[in-house]
């Protein structure tokens, strides 16, 4: 895991074109692991709206959405987000991420997850970050395990993915699990 290869940056409106290209290039690859989305999602305007919603979410402390960028070229190779932030006694966020298919297997997802978790704990004072992943998505499970997440059980029929209610293994990490 080499954090010298990538960095995370809040997505900005100027990133919409690159995010659009990333989504289109990987649409068929991601589909088995994503909800069915309206066609408007797969447009430049759809990505502009997603980024605008992310900016608004950050202003409201509800979500933080980052691009995953290669340091060498500043190319966007993925996206990672902390969403559904709950404050009060919970101090929790949900984690979601994806990496461009052509960049899979290089450790970028594991590095991005580790970086995002550190941000969650050190900058946003969250106590817990959780992620749900379909049990058949072994590469994503391996990413979470390598980043220090523990498996907390199986949620039956948890999310509607690609038109089917899918079970998800729930993983979590707390601030107490890592050294700041």
From TrEMBL:
Keyword vocabulary terms for this entry: Acyltransferase, Transferase
Q: Give Gene Ontology CC terms.
A: cytoplasm
Outline the extent of the N-acetyltransferase domain.
6-176
- The yes or no answer to whether the keyword Hydrolase is present is no
Could you state a single Gene Ontology molecular function term? protein-N-terminal-alanine acetyltransferase activity
Reading the lineage from the top rank, the first entry is: Bacteria
Query: Nucleus as a keyword?
Result: no
Recorded hits in Pfam families, A to Z, give:
Acetyltransf_3
InterPro entries found in the cross-reference section = Acyl_CoA_acyltransferase (IPR016181), GNAT_dom (IPR000182), N-acetyltransferase (IPR051531)
Q: Which protein family is named in the record?
A: Belongs to the acetyltransferase family. RimJ subfamily.
What protein name is recorded for this chain? Ribosomal-protein-alanine N-acetyltransferase
The major lineage groups are: Bacteria, Bacillati, Bacillota, Bacilli, Bacillales
């Amino acid at each position: 895991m080499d954090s010298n290869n990538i960095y995370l940056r809040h997505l900005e409106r100027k990133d919409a074109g690159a995010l659009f290209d990333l989504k289109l290039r990987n649409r068929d690859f991601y589909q088995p692991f994503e909800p069915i989305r309206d066609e408007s999602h797969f447009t430049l305007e759809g990505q502009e709206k997603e980024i605008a919603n992310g900016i608004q979410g950050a202003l409201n402390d509800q979500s933080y959405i980052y691009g995953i960028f290669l340091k060498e070229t500043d190319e966007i190779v993925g996206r990672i987000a902390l969403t559904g932030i709950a404050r009060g006694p919970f101090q929790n966020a949900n984690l979601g991420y994806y990496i461009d298919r052509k960049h899979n297997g290089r450790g970028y997802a594991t590095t991005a997850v580790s970086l995002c978790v550190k941000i969650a704990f050190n900058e946003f004072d969250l106590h817990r970050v959780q992620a749900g992943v379909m049990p058949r998505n072994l590469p994503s499970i391996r990413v979470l395990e390598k980043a220090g997440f523990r498996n907390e059980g199986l949620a039956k029929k948890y999310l509607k993915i690609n038109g089917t209610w899918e079970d998800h293994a729930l993983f979590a990490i707390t601030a107490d699990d890592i050294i700041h």
